[in-house]
Amino acid sequence: MVTKEAACVVLLLLAAATTCQAAGAGGGYYVPPGPGSTTYGLKVGYYRDKCPPAEAIVRRVVRDAVRLDPGVGAGLIRMLFHDCFVEGCDASVLLDPTPANPQPEKLAAPNNPSLRGFEVIDAAKAAVERACPGAVSCADIVAFAARDASAVLSRRGLDFDMPAGRLDGRVSSASRTLGFLPPPTFGLSQLVQSFAAKGLGVEDMVALSGAHTVGRSHCSSFVPDRIAAPSDINASFAASLRGQCPVSGGNGDPTVAQDAVTPDVLDNQYYKNVLAHRVLFTSDASLLTSPATAKMVSDNANIPGWWENRFKAAMVKMASVDVKTSNQQGEVRRNCRAVN
Ligand code: HEM
Ligand SMILES: *[C@@H]1O[C@H](CO)[C@@H](O)[C@H](O)[C@H]1NC(C)=O
To answer: Taking a C-beta distance cutoff of 8 angstroms, is the pair 316, 160 a contact?
Structure first.
């Protein structure tokens, strides 16, 4: 099995090399990094020597899981964001509580109970460990998984090289999430600031917000400021949300689809929803509150391929935030839920 997958990776790399040359010659906005190239200190094909089947194994595990439950794919895309914005892309979001560290990131309000996909990372790590013990970091698995979930949910229209070489961090603290993960009540200038703090630009922020074209949200994330208070939300959309989010009663905190039109497809429908005032969060609606970002929204909504190119580039950029690449900074965890 390992040999077969290794051969498959070699073939994929060869195929990718040809495709990348063609794409580069096209001179488009997004030039895939390409095998062997180094981006932000990370390398495409990093595991080619260290664990040839690594990317193919992760892809298979993610594909199987996302086909069974598309929501898990949404969770994996969000997981990369929540990992990278807190301590950098170092799998800090995966660490379980211990007596010495009872409140890790995953128990913080932005992650608990909403963040999902942890079992898929565990399954991918277990499969990769069987093939190459101790070789592949959990942080790289999170990045590959977000890329692979994007490919599956977009029906493979949206695939890209993900550079690797991240090490896993040893620090994870719930209290450190709040200053870095923007809440859904943020307006435009606050969003721009929180992305700028991680080296991401306005266009990256707008492109990455397009991930809200898949997955679900708890009612509590948008009812107070969007439904229970005056907002620019479309009245018939608000009525449908009210029906799904009972104001009171023992129904807990239900969830609703973020994109009511194509809920399980990673596509540019999000931007059409923003223009139609049919989005859940204040943060989503705020993209229309400056001429520059409103123009980005309509370009993403209307120009074929425009958003896809920016999303791919922004995912690679986000996946490089504060990465740890020296042995002083990190390790390759044996178990993604615990430091070695
Ligand atoms: C721009 C600032 C952002 C804010 C304020 C924000 C906020 C949120 C909130 C409140 C939820 C719903 C959580 C819940 O109640 O269950 C959510 C879901 C989600 N977010 Fe974001 N988000 C932002 C950016 C991003 C980025 C950059 C990505 C990834 C590229 C992303 C991907 C997702 C996905 C896929 C879901 C659905 C998750 C699922 O179904 O499990 N978000 N976001
Ligand atoms: C809300 O959305 C519906 C359906 O798209 C549309 O017919 C209606 O005109 C919208 N309402 C407003 C006030 O824009």
So the answer is: yes
